[in-house]
Amino acid sequence: MSLKIRLARAGAKKRPFYRIVVADSKSPRDGRYIEKVGTFNPLLPRDAGDRVILVEERIKHWLGHGAQPTDRVLRFLDKAGLAKRAARLNPTKAQPGKKRLEREEAKRTAEEEKAKAAAEAAAAPASEEPAAEAEAPAAEAEQPAAE
User: Fold this and answer.
1) Strands 15-24 and 68-69
2) φ, ψ (nearest 5 deg) of residue 43
3) Same-domain pairing of 7 and 35
4) In percent, how much of the chain has pLDDT > 70?
5) Are 1 and 23 within 8 A, CB to CB?
6) Total-model pTM
7) Do residues 21 and 52 both lie within one domain?
């Protein structure tokens, strides 16, 4: 039997309230538990004193008997000074995923092609414009003669 110190949800719909309990790891989240060792009310502000209430003696007893706290409970215990939680480091958490990188690369190449086409279009008409200007006065000279 492996023991866990974990949260068991109570409270009404949209109004969560959690019991911190010692339970067998195979029992359901809100099911049978061995002992209630605290409470957690997430609706209270973070600095409220009764947001997390722990029965420290019993928690020390169960930790001594091999009960493993879940990550959330371990955070509470670390804040209370009952257990130490190692800081975690996930350097890839803030980086974009593979699909987003592919989309950005496709967008970048499309913009580069568009800029290259615009530069070519700007360069090509610049060389053709003097020839068009030379033809325009000749066309204007022919019109008055036709009248």
Assistant:
1) unpaired
2) -80, -15
3) yes
4) 84
5) no
6) 0.61
7) yes
CA distance 144 to 67: 104
The domain containing residue 64 runs over which residues?
3-80
76 and 110 housed in the same domain: no
Q: Widest CA span of the chain, in angstroms? A: 113
One domain for residues 65 and 127: no
Strands 3-12 and 68-69, by their bridges, are parallel
Domain count, the chain: 2
**What single-letter DSSP state applies at residue 1?**
-
The tens digit of pLDDT for each residue in 47-90 reads 988 999 999 999 999 999 999 999 999 999 999 988 888 888 88
Angstrom distance (rounded) from CA 142 to CA 147: 9
The answer to whether residues 43 and 7 touch, using CB atoms and an 8 Å cutoff, is no
Q: What is the pLDDT of residues 1-26, one digit of tens each?
A: 799 999 999 999 999 999 999 999 99
DSSP reduced 3-state for 7: strand
